[in-house]
Amino acid sequence: DFALGAVRVQGTANGKPFTAQVERGAGKNPLALRVSHDGTQIETMVLSPLGARLLELMPYKAPPDLSKFLMSPMPGLLVEVSVQPGQQVQAGEKLAVIEAMKMENVLFATQDGVVGKISAAKGESLAVDQIILE
Question: How far apart are CA 40 and CA 35, in angstroms?
Fold first, then answer.
């Protein structure tokens, strides 16, 4: 019993009834569907036979490695940058503080490294995913 655009899907599999939740646009892919059932989630795409054949011919583009950047997780005001270019940092060390919705959010290093370049200044308004430092 599937209706295009429905959030909940009901049907039978191997003679047993089931209900699953379906979300469109999973993983930033507008063609993908995320199906959730009984605590398990899968991401899939439903394509015509021609669409499936053409998808196989598409080159794979690896996503860029953003692990070396500290990016703003939300829009907000950069109230503090706790490091300097060239400074050695360890995982868990405080790097910056963003104020969003009157709450301060502390951003920590996820890995050891050396600060390369600071791209945002104290007092700057940040957008989501804006680079703060490298």
Answer: 8
Mean pLDDT, all residues of the chain: 88
The answer to pTM > 0.85 is no
| Confidence at 2, pLDDT banded by 50, 70, 90 | low
- Per-residue HEC secondary structure of 3-16 comes to CCCCCEEEEEECCE
**Alpha helices, DSSP H only, in 23-98?**
49-57
Is residue 25 within 8 A of residue 43, CB to CB? The reply is: no
DSSP β-bridge partners for residue 96:
81, 107
Q: Which residue has the tokens 């700057």?
A: 124
Cβ(34)–Cβ(26) under 8 Å?
Answer: yes
Name which of 104, 100, 103, 94 is nearest 125 in CA terms: 100
- Rounded Cα gap, residues 61 and 44, in angstroms: 18
